[in-house]
What we know:
Layout: H1 9-26, H2 36-43, E1 45-47, E2 54-56, H3 67-80, H4 97-109, H5 120-130
Antiparallel strand pairs: 1-2
Helix pairs in contact: 2-3, 3-4, 3-5
Amino acid sequence: MPSSPRIRPLAALALAASAVGTLLVTAPTASAGDFADACIRSVGARTSPNGTWTIPARNFQYGSSGVCVREIQHDVASTIGIEPADWPGFIDGAWGPKTDRYVREFQRQSHLEPDGIVGPKTWEALISRTTG
């Protein structure tokens, strides 16, 4: 009977660690729009004021939660300069004080009324700034 090569435990562990490291390095990261389809499926769609974009059928503000808020958080974070290292505690789908502050900052930068409500004009600005 031919002998099969014996893998030493440390070599096997190193090989497995290398494979996991490769997966972690090459795993895709979330990008703007990753939650948009799920958002629209959950709340419906409407057309943006300029007639160009399909946007969620609801407005969102302080106290809102869910996949649409996660989309808002991701889009705002990627447009106003929040470092990706700070995204994990911020992009959580719950609209609290930090989301409110960042949405208002996005609205100011976009020359919109900084009212903290993501309605048609803010959705339009978010989508136009995050869509290639």
